[in-house]
């Protein structure tokens, strides 16, 4: 996988990540008190799927493109979490052109309230410049910084409540993500009541099982796993599916995630048979 997210913007993994991100924020909005959203790898904040990187990969064609092409009646039958996502995508497409697609920081700021704040990291200089151009919101603090060392410096936030979205460059990770596990353990020690959402690719099932085993041995409670695999596990391609590990998921999030992913699956899977959806507790209370 190429770290430059413009190649992957709008693919099935982005759809899954952004639908679940919006639902996490919706659940946090259920309480009156403000919260902090922290994005460890913010990217450019906005992408143009008509430009060369997205056109070269074509990944968006089996992701967001499939959903926007659905008849209106099918979109209206989608779960509320999916409808919210599609409505926000359409609002950007109307304003910025049919090739526009949002990144996680943009989605988050749309899902947050006026009383909430965001901290967004991006360490690549050119991508950070794009982020600064695309995200102009007084609620958002933008930081050109490596989140692997920056995250621990900003938690716990003064709001005490909040969500950390972690989607690192996995080609820089090793095997079963030891660097990521270490970050989560240290972050949880500093902010045990925070919500941590970690997106990860599924290319090698045994590696994911080792990652899950490591996480289950950390002593961290309330770990929920959400997965969507658009290809069978034994398909020899670059990306069979993706997952999101959520620590301290808000009340009712698991049920909403299960409903959303089961609706998305038949629209995003790559062949008639095979593939899977799972929402399961890795570690309970």
From TrEMBL:
Residues annotated as the enzyme's active site: 167
InterPro entries per record: RlmJ, SAM-dependent_MTases_sf
Keywords from the UniProt entry: Methyltransferase, RNA-binding, rRNA processing, S-adenosyl-L-methionine, Transferase
E.C. code: 2.1.1.266
Site (Interaction with substrate rRNA): 3
A GO term, aspect molecular function: RNA binding
GO cellular component: cytosol
Complex and partners: Monomer.
HAMAP family associated with the record: 23SrRNA_methyltr_J (MF_00934)
Name the record gives this protein: Ribosomal RNA large subunit methyltransferase J
Lineage, broadest ranks: Bacteria, Pseudomonadati, Pseudomonadota, Gammaproteobacteria, Moraxellales
Gene: rlmJ
